[in-house]
């Protein structure tokens, strides 16, 4: 990647339409969401690290999920907030655009892989409880997390490299609040059809690859729960995976399980040109980078008794410390 491949040295982000007053309102709203997201996910990471009751694979994966949520929102939201404060268009250098797109896609792919790993963990917990500690050993969990992170970042090197090999000569205006791949490909004067098709296939592979363990795991989980004779037993078994299942439903989207979370594979990251819609793109991006990370702490605290107990004890210790 270099300047000989493009006539553009910087991009102008159009951001959100509307008056400066509207931008100030949006700034306040998004700043609130961002602040709560950072604090909520940071609290989850902290209590998982310090509370012995949460020293299990489920919460180990949860802490990494919270790290990913912090990253995915931090990659996008600060730039978006800065654009809302500045009048006119916001400029971003070619290098910064490459870095932002790569990190955004890599973190999103890592989160997909981690959700699949968490589904497998819940399957073992419900369907093989007696062997859970043996199967989901600390060594196994660490390797599952490492593979998720490595796969997420390595899998996006070529797609981002291929995107910035095109010549961007039509314009340098991106109708978005971050360096969106679909908008970038619209600026190219080259024939991008084959590359877009390859990127499309890669996205489908990543999504299907993460969905298969999730679907298979929950098929066995539901089958096992339905065989439990007592209602209290079924409720207890389902509660062990309710938070993850809720996050999967929200993350993959209410209509098509893949549309929202991964930037809608077909529409947000690698969608063909004829399907690009700037307004849809922005809304979907907001769901990915603002709403879902914001909901994560609430999903895993309000539906999890152990986390709530750890939070209460942590608050009591803090209050006691301040009194002393």
TrEMBL record:
Ranges where the G-protein coupled receptors family 1 profile domain occurs: 40-300
Molecular-function annotations in GO: G protein-coupled receptor activity; olfactory receptor activity
InterPro entries: GPCR_Rhodpsn (IPR000276), GPCR_Rhodpsn_7TM (IPR017452), Olfact_rcpt (IPR000725), Olfact_rcpt_6C-like (IPR047132)
Segments traversing the membrane: 25-48, 60-81, 101-120, 141-161, 197-221, 242-263, 283-302
PROSITE patterns attached to this UniProt entry: G_PROTEIN_RECEP_F1_1, G_PROTEIN_RECEP_F1_2
Keywords in alphabetical order: Cell membrane, G-protein coupled receptor, Membrane, Olfaction, Receptor, Sensory transduction, Transducer, Transmembrane, Transmembrane helix
Compartment(s): Cell membrane
Assigned protein family: Belongs to the G-protein coupled receptor 1 family.
Organism: Tupaia chinensis (Chinese tree shrew)
GO cellular component: plasma membrane
Short name of one Pfam family: 7tm_4
Name used for this protein in its record: Olfactory receptor
Major site of localization recorded for this protein: membrane
Topology in membrane: Multi-pass membrane protein
């Amino acid at each position: 990647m270099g300047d000989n491949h493009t006539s553009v040295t910087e991009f102008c982000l159009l951001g959100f339409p509307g008056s400066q007053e509207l931008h100030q309102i949006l700034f306040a709203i998004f700043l609130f969401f961002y602040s709560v997201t950072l604090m909520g996910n940071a609290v989850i990471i902290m209590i998982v690290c310090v509370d012995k009751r949460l020293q299990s694979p489920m919460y180990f994966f949860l802490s990494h999920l919270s790290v990913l949520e912090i990253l995915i929102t931090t990659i996008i939201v600060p730039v978006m907030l800065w654009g809302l404060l500045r009048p006119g268009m916001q400029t971003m250098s070619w290098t910064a655009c490459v870095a932002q797109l790569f990190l955004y896609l890599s973190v999103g792919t890592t989160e997909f892989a981690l959700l699949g790993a968490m589904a497998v963990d819940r399957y073992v917990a419900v369907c093989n409880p007696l062997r859970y500690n043996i199967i989901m050993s600390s060594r196994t969990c660490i390797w599952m997390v490492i593979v998720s992170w490595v796969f997420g970042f390595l899998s996006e090197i070529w797609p981002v490299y291929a995107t910035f090999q095109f010549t961007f000569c039509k314009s340098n205006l991106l109708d978005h609040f971050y360096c969106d791949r679909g908008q970038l490909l619209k600026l190219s004067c080259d024939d991008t059809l084959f590359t877009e098709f390859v990127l499309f296939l890669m996205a489908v592979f990543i999504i299907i690859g993460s969905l298969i363990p999730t679907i298979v795991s929950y098929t066995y989980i539901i089958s096992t729960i339905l065989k439990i004779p007592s209602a209290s037993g079924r409720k207890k078994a389902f509660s062990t995976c309710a938070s993850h299942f809720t996050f999967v439903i929200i993350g993959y989207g209410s209509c098509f399980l893949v549309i929202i979370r991964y930037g809608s594979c077909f529409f947000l990251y690698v969608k063909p040109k004829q399907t690009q819609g700037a307004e849809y793109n922005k809304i979907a991006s907001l769901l990915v980078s603002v709403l879902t990370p914001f909901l994560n702490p609430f999903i895993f605290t309000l539906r999890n008794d152990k986390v709530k107990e750890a939070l209460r004890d942590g608050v009591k210790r803090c209050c006691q410390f301040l009194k002393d």
